[in-house]
């Protein structure tokens, strides 16, 4: 554009040819000495005609040609005045573009999930309530999802996001097993999920999960979220009821517990979370992951657990006071 503007300032015939092109671009031809081949130069010396090179000039993105052609090329402005204009984006943060709008329509969610390692393996427990704001949409959601026979994942956040990415992780773990002739480790599976979620960071995913399992190194437990964060630990709780579950879990946790004691601790922590958190409820499911794989230990309705932990003791009605005769 700069070169053409200089030619237009100093050479009126070229300016006229550009103006003609503006009116009928298909007829515009411009020969350039710099791009002539040796055979073309030989043809010019011998007096023969040389086919002109077609030069395409795109002006679709120009809103004004004043800064290009200046005042000397004002006769070209008429040809570009009808060029279409487009609006430039007003933001440079494309990861966070309209993130507020996504948050406005995202329904509130609530759940309680927990997992902890003890001497015999890993205990995983969760409730079964799904909510949309103040509306309880389901009381029977399966929040503990199988990844492979030796690994489980928990679901907290958006139900669709968690279910899809856990199924996707299960497929990738199976492909790894078929390719390498060995099961993927808990560390590898959690890192694989964290890398996937990190690549979608800022796109509205809502995932808070724990990956619990048993591999060649023993029991493993990792926390992974939709921002790509990944933490290793011995006990975690995720969801709106997690502060209440942590209170029971931290006070009763021991590494040398038996399987029955560990299952009871997980069941009791889920119950107390559902008792205090309105977004958690339904059925308290408890799973155990050990050297032989995972298995479900129990699934108790939290309303029945309430009477187990707080039994109603019938009391006799007090006798009415006897009237004292005067």
TrEMBL record:
Entry GO CC: cytoplasm; nucleus; proteasome core complex
Keyword Cytoplasm among UniProt keywords: yes
Active site per UniProt: 111 (nucleophile)
UniProt keyword annotations, A-Z: Cytoplasm, Hydrolase, Nucleus, Protease, Proteasome, Threonine protease, Zymogen
Cell compartment(s), UniProt: Nucleus
Listed EC numbers: 3.4.25.1
InterPro entries: Ntn_hydrolases_N, Pept_T1A_subB, Proteasome_bsu_CS, Proteasome_sua/b, Proteasome_suB-type
Domain of life: Eukaryota
One biological process term in Gene Ontology: proteolysis involved in protein catabolic process
Transit peptide among keywords: no
Catalytic activity: Cleavage of peptide bonds with very broad specificity
Top EC class, one word: hydrolase
Coiled coil: none
Gene3D superfamilies in the cross-refs: Glutamine Phosphoribosylpyrophosphate, subunit 1, domain 1 (3.60.20.10)
One GO MF term attached to the UniProt entry: threonine-type endopeptidase activity
Record PROSITE patterns: PROTEASOME_BETA_1, PROTEASOME_BETA_2
Subunit-level organization: Component of the 20S core complex of the 26S proteasome. The 26S proteasome is composed of a core protease (CP), known as the 20S proteasome, capped at one or both ends by the 19S regulatory particle (RP/PA700). The 20S proteasome core is composed of 28 subunits that are arranged in four stacked rings, resulting in a barrel-shaped structure. The two end rings are each formed by seven alpha subunits, and the two central rings are each formed by seven beta subunits. The catalytic chamber with the active sites is on the inside of the barrel.
Role noted for this protein: The proteasome is a multicatalytic proteinase complex which is characterized by its ability to cleave peptides with Arg, Phe, Tyr, Leu, and Glu adjacent to the leaving group at neutral or slightly basic pH. The proteasome has an ATP-dependent proteolytic activity.
UniProt xrefs under PANTHER family: METALLOPROTEASE TLDD (PTHR32194), PROTEASOME SUBUNIT BETA (PTHR32194:SF3)
Identification of the protein by name: proteasome endopeptidase complex
Organism per entry: Salix viminalis (Common osier)
Source taxonomy: Eukaryota, Viridiplantae, Streptophyta, Embryophyta, Tracheophyta
């Amino acid at each position: 554009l700069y070169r053409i503007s200089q030619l237009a300032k100093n050479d009126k015939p070229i300016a006229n040819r550009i103006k003609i092109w503006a009116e009928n671009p298909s007829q515009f031809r411009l020969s350039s000495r710099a791009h002539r081949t040796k055979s073309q130069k030989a043809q010019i010396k011998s007096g023969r005609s040389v086919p002109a090179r077609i030069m395409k000039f795109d002006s679709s993105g120009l809103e004004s040609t004043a800064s290009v052609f200046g005042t000397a090329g004002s006769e070209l402005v008429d040809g570009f005045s009808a060029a279409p204009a487009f609006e430039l984006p007003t933001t440079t943060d494309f990861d966070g573009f309209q993130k507020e709008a996504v948050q406005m329509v995202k329904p509130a969610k609530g759940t309680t999930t927990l997992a902890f390692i003890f001497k015999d393996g890993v205990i995983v427990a969760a409730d079964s309530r799904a909510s949309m704001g103040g509306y309880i949409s389901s009381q029977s959601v399966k929040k503990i999802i199988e990844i492979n026979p030796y690994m489980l994942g928990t679901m907290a956040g958006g139900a669709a996001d968690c279910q899809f990415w856990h199924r996707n992780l299960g497929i990738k773990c199976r492909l790894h097993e078929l390719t390498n002739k060995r099961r993927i480790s808990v560390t590898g599976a959690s890192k694989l999920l964290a890398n996937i979620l990190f690549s979608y960071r800022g796109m509205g995913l809502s995932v808070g999960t724990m990956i619990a399992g048993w591999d060649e190194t023993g029991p493993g437990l990792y926390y992974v979220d939709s921002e790509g964060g990944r933490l290793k630990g011995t006990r975690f709780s995720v969801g709106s009821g997690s502060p209440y579950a942590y209170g029971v879990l931290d006070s009763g946790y021991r590494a040398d517990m038996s399987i029955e004691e560990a299952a009871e601790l997980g069941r009791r922590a889920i119950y107390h979370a559902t008792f205090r958190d309105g977004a958690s409820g339904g059925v308290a499911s408890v799973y155990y992951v050990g050297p032989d794989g995972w298995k479900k230990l129990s699934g108790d309705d939290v309303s029945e657990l309430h009477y187990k932990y707080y039994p109603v003791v019938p009391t006799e009605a007090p006798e009415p006071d006897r009237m004292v005769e005067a």
